[in-house]
């Protein structure tokens, strides 16, 4: 569809302008697809050519790929994510495999021709009429659908990458698609039982009105624009709280706090639940938020800036209830991480870090650190050091920066 519209707009002389905004380009292409049967047929022909490796069509398609990847790289940089182009293996990488996959499915007796299309019927999934549900892997026009590409990806990840666990982080509403695709891969031998295939679904981010988060005009919110706004809001807060800081210092803190707040607001919720997006809540320096945890870390660091000496090998001696509670919680870090990895629920880690920050605050108030003496002082400094290490490591695992001071 996009290639067909690119060819059409090139004739009109405005393709470059529209390619500068892929969202608008896609929307206009979709309108043409829905309104014109001739255009829709042309678009379908281009899909078949693209999957067949037609050089001219591939050349046009790469324009979209380049623009899309450049945008993604800008977002990755803003998020401090280390993904590069060499880490990307797009759908087109599997195009040569798709006919082979269909042939292998046929040889294994899994394919049925239905109205000209190649279909895998699965007894594990039933229609309302209690008949096996069919999954199309090749359309009657010869084109392949994204299910076929996903099957190709699983096949590649098993045969070439030798993976033992593959995690798909995709909207929960795609659960049936993945369940069916995984089943086909198992039946075809593309994924042995020892290879874990997991769909990690997630809910929807809602606005204050309880509806899916949109712009005021009803459009889709771009992530890069959301992140930029987060930084600007954080900059305003930092400027208000610390007007004497240099602009460079304010920007550094605003970047860590703003981007961290957006990440944490999402990761701190049960991924299967919908949640309300609210700027005031996520940027608050109180409660279960990134700014609160970042501030808690700087509070611990301030202790060591004031301490003249610190014995990193000191023995921890527990004498007070607040010490016992903090030490017991710190000892649970590894178990918490194991739970996160096992179920792919990052909010377990968020809740744990919030608990650590809260317990440290109680410990800090109840148990003087720098004013104590001897082994008590050394022990409490050791607890503070372990707290800082746990907060720093945990936030880093969530992709959130820490600061030495705020």
Automatic annotation (TrEMBL):
Pfam family, one: DALR_1
Chemical reaction(s) catalysed: tRNA(Arg) + L-arginine + ATP = L-arginyl-tRNA(Arg) + AMP + diphosphate
Limits of the DALR anticodon binding domain: 293-406
GO terms of biological process kind: arginyl-tRNA aminoacylation
SUPFAM superfamilies tied to this protein: Anticodon-binding domain of a subclass of class I aminoacyl-tRNA synthetases, Nucleotidylyl transferase
Stored Gene3D superfamilies: HUPs, Isoleucyl-tRNA Synthetase, Domain 1
Presence of keyword Nucleotide-binding: yes
Sample GO molecular function, one term: arginine-tRNA ligase activity
UniProt cross-references to InterPro entries, sorted A to Z: Arg-tRNA-ligase (IPR001278), ArgRS_core (IPR035684), DALR_anticod-bd (IPR008909), Rossmann-like_a/b/a_fold (IPR014729), tRNAsynth_Ia_anticodon-bd (IPR009080)
The protein's Enzyme Commission number: 6.1.1.19
Annotated CDD domains: Anticodon_Ia_Arg
Top enzyme category: ligase
Keyword terms of this UniProt record: Aminoacyl-tRNA synthetase, ATP-binding, Ligase, Nucleotide-binding, Protein biosynthesis
GO cellular component, one term: cytoplasm
Domain of life, source organism: Bacteria
Coiled-coil intervals: none
Family: Belongs to the class-I aminoacyl-tRNA synthetase family.
NCBIfam families membership: argS
Protein name in UniProt: Arginine--tRNA ligase
